Structure formats: C-alpha cells, structure tokens
Amino acid sequence: MATRLPRRALVLFAHGARDPQWATPFHRLRQIIQTQLPDTVVELAFLELMTPKLPELTAQLQQCGCDEITVVPVFLGQGGHVSRDLPLIVAQLQQDYPAMAFRVAAAAGEDADVLAAIAQYCIGSLVKN
C-alpha cells in the first residue's frame, strides 16, 4: 500500500493595504516562487485590508488536500504583527486543523541574504541615478 506524500503549501503572509496596487510585488513574488516549486502550492494571505486572510486560505488549502503549511511573513522586521498577531492566528489554526502541520518562518527581512540583496539594490541605486 503506497503512502500519500504530504501536500505542502507555502503561504506568503503580508500586511495588506487599501490600495490593490500595493499587492502587485507580492503577486510577482508568489509567481516566481511557484515557478521554482511546481510541486508546492504557493499562495498569498494578508493580515488585514485585503483577502484572503490566513484562516480562510487555510480552509481552502485543507479542502484541496494540503496538510503541511509553511507561513513566511513577508515583512522587513519581526514587529508586533509577526511576533504577536501571527502566532495567535496560527495557534487558532492549529486548534481548528489538528491534522495539519504549521511552520512559521522568521520575517523575511530578518534573513541575512535578504538584507544583503536589499543592500545591493540600495547601493545599485546610487549608480543608476
């Protein structure tokens, strides 16, 4: 009897904004990642002002067979939304979906490689101007 491999999801978690154009880079980032991870479901979720919120997205992911979700906060720092709000949301999701495994990464801006890429972009802007 073959065992079913877990269906993984990578959720890019962003703040959200009133202006829908604000989300454009996040959609591009999602597409770049999806292209590189064709066997993983890659989605966006927002804390506020935009949809889907993480709880409604989790329900959709569960319905399509995902049982492992990694949430990546696409924030520069580990501020209140990432250190307080997100853990509360994920704790509730773990209660609501006990068969699913949840993992939360550090805020993207906490990673040395991300900071180095941003630094190179900033340094490069001196040359471009």
From TrEMBL:
InterPro entries: CbiX-like (IPR002762), Sirohydro_Cobaltochel/CbiX (IPR050963). Gene3D superfamilies: 3.40.50.1400. It comes from the Bacteria. Keywords: Lyase, Metal-binding. PANTHER family: FERROCHELATASE CHE1, SIROHYDROCHLORIN FERROCHELATASE, CHLOROPLASTIC. This is Sirohydrochlorin chelatase.
